[in-house]
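Dear colleague,

Following up on Tuesday's group meeting, I ran the structure prediction for the two-component complex that the binding team flagged. I've pasted the input sequences exactly as they went in, so you can double-check that nothing got truncated or mislabelled along the way. The structure tokens for the whole assembly follow below. Feel free to forward this to whoever is handling the docking comparison.

Inputs:
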Amino acid sequence: MKRESFEALQRRPRLVVVGNGMAGVRAVEHLLELSPDLYDITVFGAEPHPNYNRILLSPVLAGEQTLADIVLNDADWYAANGITLHLGKKIVRIDRARRVVEAADGTRAEYDRLLLATGSNPVMLPVSGVNLDGVLAYRDIHDTERMIAAAAKGRRAVVIGGGLLGLEAANGLRARGMDVTVVHLMPWLMERQLDRTAADLLKQALEARGLAFRLEAQTESILGGDDGRVRAVRLRAPRPADPGDMHGGRVPLLDSAGEELPADLVVMAIGIRPNTALAESAGLHCHRGIVVNDTLQTFDPRIYAVGECVNHRGVAYGLVAPLFEMAKVCANHLAQAGIARYAGSFVSTKLKVTGIDVFSVGEFAGGADTEEIVLSDPGAGVYRKLVLRDDRLVGGVLYGDTADGAWYLKLLRDGANVAEMRDRLMFGETNVGDTGHLGKSNVAAMADDLEVCGCNGVCKGAIVKAVKDKGLFTLDAVRKHTKASSSCGSCTGLVEQILINVLGADYSAAPKQKALCGCTDRTHQEVRDAIRDRQLISIAAVREFLEWRTPDGCATCRPALNYYLISAWPRETQDDPQSRFINERSHANIQKDGTYSVVPRMWGGETNAAELRRIADVVDKYRIPTVKVTGGQRIDLLGVKKEDLRSVWRDLDMPSGHAYAKALRTVKTCVGSEWCRFGTQDSTQMGKDLERALWRMYAPHKVKLAVSGCPRNCAEAGIKDVGVIGVESGWELYVAGNGGIKTEVAQFLVKVKTAAEVLEHAGAFLQLYREEGWYLERTVHFVHRVGMDYVRKRVLEDAAGRRALWERLQFALEGEPDPWRELAKAAVDERQFEAIGV
Amino acid sequence: MSHWTDVCALDDIPRLGARRVRRMDGAEIAVFRTADDRVFAVLDRCPHKGGPLSQGIVFGAKVACPLHNWTIDLDSGCAAAPDEGCVRRFAVRVDGGRVMLDATTPLAAAPTGTTVTA
């Protein structure tokens, strides 16, 4: 015994997981990522199978996939990660005092931390005959196998329950050749996900496939034959209508009154109930699920619980996405990383019946304080309803074409203001990815060999394969494994759609609040708020206050933090060059061969003979291989060696063009009234004034301006972050345009009379973006997020606020050095330009 | 046999940064300094597309390649999963504030046994 206690001091803590399903194993996977060697892990599974993808049982039933296709973690995975796996062993007892669990066969395991992931049980109707041979629930692979076997022998099936699971079961059995009748208590199918219109369309489509329905029908009993097998389902006769109902009330459905539906197989799919028997027997507090807090701990803090067995803030979830979010938070705590919290989930649903597309999310039914936008074309089998409250999407139902489901889900999750796009909202995100993927926006219609990610050359088939083979559920995981959408991100919508199409909508959407990076669970907004409210003025202080998990952060968070600090505390915080991307450290743009490009500033795109001569001399002297005119009306010198950068800058004797920085790039101009016979305003001078006022301005992302002297708009001001168009009576300002990955036309902000007003309004808008934009968020995304109304309120309606913004920008820029000509003041580390010789 | 060369003072390398060391023959070597003053030396070529690792952002004992953001572990020389590939490593140490580098022979291939390029 003495020896044991000595070992107890030496050994690693033990984690025992009860339940080998998707939630429990996902928590273990996250734990292994965070802290692979922390625990000795033991997993108990009541089923004799490895962890499989329960949400793909319906395709297995329908004969589209096999069990082998849907296994997520095979035995080798457990072995490779040093996990002890007990299959087919159901835990029947937890001794909390001795911290030991015991299985039905007597197998015991001691724990220091226990994770309960016992899932849920199907609800069986309390009617006579439920125990007859041939009456099944639809819950696990065993049920599925029995249904497949029954379908091979029998002819007629009755599915009780017209919800998601019941319809998938009915469809699967029909696909296996049975005559199927669905009995449903409510007036329409899937009433928890669909409104009546969508449900009626769904019913028609399923009827066309040969399914029969009895709606508003209640099962009275299940009848058996002499052989002890099920023979039929008897429906209850409708209750005698009360006198009030006799006049214009509901007409009783006489055709189902007392009807007997012959059946060789009865599948019960009326709902699930959290499996809390084990937890309750151990004295853990349960109430419609094992009650857990935001860190997924039960009332015994050593015992965690995740998945369908859990009641979190009064909600028990039955879809996979919330379970995964719980697993992630739980793993974070088990790893002692400790600041993640689970705050509940948005759920969306998609019916996994091949060829019938139904999508539902949020408050699809609407209410007194909501508005609805409806598109209905029953002939074409298309129905779409979106529910809005206060200009935000709060729910929706899509029938027929669900390709935009992912986009709506995102709008809903982000709480995005949709006032600006109300008129187009119904038609979906038609321009998801309009460059680099043949303008395709609907993945269902895409062939497998069609390229989805133009940056990394990833085809649809490769993504589908990775999702299936590697069991991926999230956009992030797909990015990591395939690289799709990991570069410019324009195909994100397409990749997300592919995920949804492969997985059904149970796929795990990124949590609403996305962490800044893997070093923290804080969002961009939380970090910005903390820096401002807590007056944090160094990266170290931010990391300490917000409990960063890594000592130095990473290549994602450091540049963001550095920008947030310099934009929140100009002239107070110390810029940290080592936290900047190489381009902003060397003040030139790194090229694929490790050389750099140099773009000198030409105010408003204007130059002269002296500058051009110096440029030509520099090109000769430093043997610069390529000279290119840029789209921003400047000259790009490509292929400059790093050792030559300082001399090139000196010999050019022109200001930095910041073509390498998340900063003001160019102000593109047309010729304007000075020369042009159509010009109404001096756009070149306006552009020069704007550029001189705004240059050296760092921002969340690059910033481009343009000024045109008349509405012909030769400077293409409509696709710039700030576009200015001169008209006879003054200047029109447009903001948040974008000419890159996704072409976005700038939105009209205001018309003003004078150049001074142009400067003040443009400057105020950009300062708002600098102070409140998230790092790497272009103005177009910033304005989408906060809404154009908010921008108008801050920049137009609040005149004093506008002036204050403009003054803060000028304060920030005053004395800001030109890094090419004031290297010391700009804290350029000049050691980087010299290689050490040996 | 080792050929230790005194390349520079430790303080000639910025913390969380790197310097390039040019050789008479062979590609440049990147010498890194971490926040806690450890030093690492690897060939200045990312196993992915040959990007100059010396120009990347350094965090912990890792560097993010400036071209496509692969993360290379400086201790093993290998890319973080799911990317695959390793860069050659060289022996380097700090002796009395001086950085000593053996630029002649790379260390044995990284322990994971994945492909070593460049």
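Residues 241-252 of chain A have pLDDT under 50 and may be disordered.

Cheers,
M.
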